[in-house]
Design brief:
The complex is a heterodimer of chains A (about 260) and B (about 240). By secondary structure, chain A is an all-alpha fold. Helices cover about 70% and strands about 0% of the residues of chain A. Chain A is globular and about 55 Å long. The two termini of chain A are about 30 Å apart. Classes of the chains: A mainly alpha (about 260), B mainly alpha (about 240). At the A-B interface, helix 3, helix 6, helix 9 and helix 11 of A face helix 1, helix 2, helix 3 and helix 4 of B.
């Protein structure tokens, strides 16, 4: 585990770079700007997505925090998809792997490093949002609301793992493009797989769509309203962790077989 | 065994993958059920989504969905009435030939069911078809129906006669059995007025006089709607007493 943490520390050290400093300032400003946005509800033309996302029961998400997680995901794509390919290109990976560190540990370490970077961004933006709300509205968010918003971080775990898995197959730019396309497909399939459940069973399309949808993580689940303690949260955690393990395992299998001197 | 060894070992990774997939499918199933349950209480209209489809395929998709819904209803039908109405609705989406065959099957299999009325009406004064339902056949069908459904069968039969260019004699022939029955609802008044008028025009005084007598009798009766409302109230009253 120490070796994994050592790799993640190298990754995390990148936050000292000026680009990341700018990113964190953006996080703070962004958090401030979105602090007074209301609970997530989508009306009008996009009501269909709104209905899929928002349930009547449970604690709803605040739009501001959803914006923050979307920004965090953007960083996750950039950081997660480029980290390993850049190490491979710069031969940094050879240097690291010349130490008693396995390739699996390297991938895991990189993963933890990128997740930590995203975590830093998210927390910074959230603190800014909470403080801005305190200044503007003169009150703090209730603990329940804050806990629900913090659950958004669960979505980051499979998300980063997915981008890192793609990055073990491709170069940095290609990995970013493929990750973005995969996310778009995932969102479409997520909506479609829920939509087909509302269609008549005799049409027989649901099973085909579900099979295809299993190849894509359903990110809508993370944005649903639910009680902060219960089976749904537990299921969501298991869902995120199992997806993370699947993506990282595939990434590790590929990385173990990859010729790094190509 | 160190963590490093675990991760570099492809077999171990495969084993981890299998376990992870098990948890993935289980948790996904639970989350899907939750998402669907949450949507159940909302007005998520499939039709609304379909209206956003390109015009060319919208109608085809809608027709397939409608047919699918009907097939689901057919599979879930608990009564003969539900089965008949769904079968006819399904056949209506097919060709004229399929519809006629369905009507024939329904009229033969369910001759006592009120839902078969459209089948009998289809063959009653329907021209050259697979089956002919004569006035006498139609009267027999009405006779087999429950009291509350008979009026509608009379009404529908009369409309068919008018719609197919029936004259006064046809109307008299069709409505004549009404002179032998004791009307139960005020609604029958309309039918007796028709009969009186046709008999008057044809100079059938005996029929006209008897029909006028029954018209007067109908005036004093409650309407079918009133009887049904009264019956519903009585039922709910009994249920309330039972629950107390």
């Amino acid at each position: 585990m120490e070796k994994v943490l050592a790799v993640s520390e190298i990754t995390l050290k990148r936050v000292k770079e000026p680009a990341f400093n700018v990113l964190f300032i953006i996080a703070a400003v962004f958090g401030y700007c979105v602090s007074e946005m209301e609970a997530l509800s989508i009306h009008g033309e996009d009501a269909t997505i709104g209905v899929i996302l928002a349930s009547d029961s449970g604690t709803p998400l605040l739009t501001g925090f959803v914006m923050i997680i979307l920004m965090t995901m953007l960083i996750a794509v950039f950081s997660g998809a480029t980290d390993i390919p850049r190490d491979v290109e710069s031969r940094m990976v050879m240097f690291i792997l010349s130490k008693p560190i396995s390739r699996g540990e390297y991938v895991l370490g990189k993963y933890i490093g990128v997740v930590s970077t995203c975590l830093l961004f998210f927390i910074l933006a959230c603190i800014s949002t909470v403080l801005a709300h305190l200044i503007k509205a003169g009150e703090l968010y209730s603990l329940t609301v804050l806990v629900r918003q913090s659950y958004l971080l669960i979505a980051i775990l499979p998300f980063v793992a997915m981008t890192m898995m793609i990055s073990t197959f491709l170069s940095d730019i290609s990995a970013m493009i493929v990750a973005a396309v995969y996310i778009m497909f995932a969102l479409s399939m997520s909506a479609m797989s829920i939509f087909v459940d509302m269609l008549p069973k005799s049409l027989g399309v649901a099973s085909y769509v579900h099979v295809i949808a299993y190849f894509f993580p359903n990110y809508f689940y993370f944005f649903n309203s639910f009680k902060i303690f219960g089976v749904v949260v537990l299921s969501l955690l298991v869902y995120a962790l199992s997806l993370t393990v699947i993506f990282l395992a595939i990434g590790t299998l590929k990385f173990n077989r990859r010729d790094l001197i190509e | 065994m160190s963590c490093g060894l675990c991760l570099s070992d492809s077999k171990a990774v495969s084993l981890v993958l299998v376990t992870a997939f098990f948890f993935y499918f289980t948790s996904e199933m639970l989350l899907r059920q939750y998402a669907l349950a949450g949507m159940g209480s909302k007005d998520l209209n499939v039709n609304k989504i379909i209206t956003r489809l390109p015009e060319g395929i919208r109608e085809k998709v809608m027709a397939r969905i409608t047919k699918g819904r009907l097939l689901d209803q057919l599979a879930a039908a608990k009564t003969d009435g539900e089965y008949i109405s769904t079968r006819i609705a399904l056949a209506s989406m097919e060709t004229e030939d399929v519809l006629e065959k369905t009507y024939l099957e329904i009229s033969e299999r369910f001759p006592n069911n009120p839902e078969s009325m459209s089948s009998f009406l289809f063959f009653f004064r329907g021209g050259p078809r697979m089956r002919q339902v004569s006035v006498a056949d139609y009267h027999l069908f009405i006779g087999r129906l429950p009291e509350a459904d008979r009026y509608f069968a009379w009404e529908a039969g009369l409309s068919k006669i008018k719609g197919t260019g029936g004259d006064n004699l046809d109307r008299i022939e069709f409505l004549r059995p009404l002179l032998e029955i004791e009307p139960k609802y005020k609604d029958y008044l309309r039918l007796y007025v028709e009969l009186t008028e046709a008999a008057f025009q044809e100079g059938a005084t005996a029929i006209e006089n008897r029909s006028r007598e029954l018209e007067e009798a109908c005036e004093k009766l409650p309407t079918l709607m009133q009887v049904m409302e009264r019956s519903d109230k009585e039922k709910s009253g009994k249920q309330n007493k039972g629950s107390k």
